[in-house]
Amino acid sequence: MWATGNKRFVLIYSIIQCICWIVFRTLVLGFLLRKQSSSQLITRWFIKHGGNGEEAFSSWRAVYNTVTIMTYGSFGLVAATAYHWGDALVSNLVLFHTLGLLLIAFHVWSSRSVYEVLGDFGWFYGDFFARDSSMLSLAPSDFKLYYTGIYRYLNDPEKVIGQAAFYGLALISRSWAVFALALLLQIGSFLFNTYVETPHMQKIYGAQVRRDSGIVRTVKNAVNKGVGQPVFVNGQNGAAKVSEEDRQLLGHHSRNSESLSMVDLLTSTTRPVKDMFLETKGLLSTTTARLAEITLPAELSKIDHLNMYDIKPHPGAAWKMASSGKGSVSSKIAKNMYYLGESIRVSWQAPVNHSRRDWIGIYPVTANFSNQITTVGSKGCYVYTHPDENLLAEMVVGDSVFAGFVKSAANVKDAAGSVDYASMNGLTNGSFARGGSRKRNSASASVQVLQGEVLFSSSALPFKVGTYEMRLHHGGTHAVIAQSKPFEITVCETKDIVRALGQQSAPDPVQASPDDVEYLSHALLHIINKTFAVTDSHAVSLPRESPASIAASNGHMGVDDAGDVAVQTEVVEPLESVSDVFSVDGALDEKQARRLGYAIKEYLGVEFASDVLIHAAKHGATVLDVAKRVVEARKALSAYSSATFLTK
């Protein structure tokens, strides 16, 4: 009794294990191969983590071989555990064992024949990983289909007779459970072939994939000769016509069915809940912004000449390239475009009595719901327009040290006769009623203003492709007193990187293919310099006779006898040549590695994990070394980056 119960437990366990391996082999490996065919998922993952295409294929072979062995082994365990003949007739015993062994032998012969034709490369689906013999060591010299060996008779032996051994084991064990597992394996093989292997073969080899196998052709020719007329036509016009008619009919039926499907019923039920959630979220955000507007600092209502505050970004490299006829967009569009990592210089203007704690922040255009107050953090993307000594002294590690400076002082006519801060900013709730409007005696009064510049660079830049805006804030608060037009941070084409990120006036250091190591090493050098750029800011004292100092003194800004204080800012790029180690002071931190990995992905289309870059920098990898890995990765991925493949 104990032996019987133990055997039953082993049988149930082995059946469950076999089902799991069959499902894993069909669904998980099928999904991975399908994604590998469409987007090189496996190869990209290995390249991202410091590997290459050869390692990706080698690891795939190990995984596929392990899963296949476990599937066959668990199936054999089920058959061995379920084997029981009892008092069956000897004649039946001999017949079933003979048929089963013949099927197993037939399976072994067919698999051996397939392996002899395909080799390791084809057996493990190597054409999912390479389209060039130089990409993998096991790849053949040419990628063409040759119908030799067993493939002379069958297009896909695995699909037709590839599961014969499992039915043989079902006969030998005389178990319906084993037969059901063999049928499940057959279905899994059919699904794998239909949704993974066949679409990839059609995409890669096109017209080389024959429609009928050798056996089918022989049968069709024999039938046509015996009947005396072409019963089977070698062509696809009729089939295509019927297929199109069936497709239209099925499409019409499916559209009618979709209107009553359970999925649509569930979707129509959940959609109001989702809409209500989104509306509630938007209402809360808007309410927060409105409450913030109501509680704006009272001193804002007393500010004179609000229309004299202004910020304006300078055109970047994209505009310069477009103006010289080398860009891919018009100069009008490129005027509001900047390349990822490129420094952005901004001109600002403010009355001489403006707050020395005024600051400019960069935000995504959709981040704030109000034009009057900023409700989200700048995440370090901010600069002070005109900081004084006290403000500079307050800066600690982690604060922004990107500061602006005054270029000149000027008298500007104020065209506005009167300014009401509340009405100017669109506030109609009367929150500034006690402050009242600030009236001027003349519509053409002359206002003394300061004009200067700030520089956004390095960590003060948003390091993500997208659309942004700049906001000038008053006196260390989040009250907005000026905004810039929306601008876009983007990337250029690989062939334009050296020209776009290098010196505009200088010729390209190399004129070569974007996949050439020499060119990519120079392109990568510019990308790394933009990513690791260091901003050197230091305060200097201006003489009392300088325009900025005189204007500040007249504005009673608390300037001492030594004169005003200005901050000089310059961007220092750490690397000089492609032989330098791609790091700052011989090491990379996590943030720098993430930024560099993102820049390489956006500019060059190759993704590296941050830990891979940190490890490479730690071991002294140069820019040229990284460029070689990028070229290798681009070569491994380029064959599948186009939808056009070999069709003849």
Task: Describe the structure concisely for a colleague.
The protein has 648 residues and is of the alpha+beta class. 48% of the residues lie in helices and 12% in strands.
Uncertain residue ranges: 235-267, 417-443, 504-510, 550-563, 642-648
Main sheet attributes: strand count, strand direction, barrel closure? 6 strands, mixed
The N- and C-terminal alpha carbons lie at a distance of: 67 Å
Radius of gyration: 36 Å
Mean pLDDT equals: 75
Sheet/helix structural class:
alpha+beta
The fraction of residues in strands falls at: 5-15%
| Form type | elongated
> What is the number of beta strands?
14
The residue fraction in helices comes out at 40-55%
Number of helices: 20
Could you list some keywords that capture this structure?
648 residues; six-stranded mixed beta sheet; four-stranded antiparallel beta sheet; elongated; disordered C terminus
Descriptive overview:
The structure is a single chain. The chain starts with a helix and ends in a 10-residue tail after the last helix. Helix 3 (53-82) packs antiparallel against helix 7, helix 16 (517-532) packs across helix 20 and helix 18 crosses helix 19. 31% of the residues are buried. Strand 10 (466-473) and strand 11 (480-483) form a beta hairpin. Strands 2, 4, 5, 10, 11 and 12 form a six-stranded mixed beta sheet that branches. The chain has 20 helices and 14 strands. With 648 residues, it is α+β, with helices and mostly antiparallel strands.
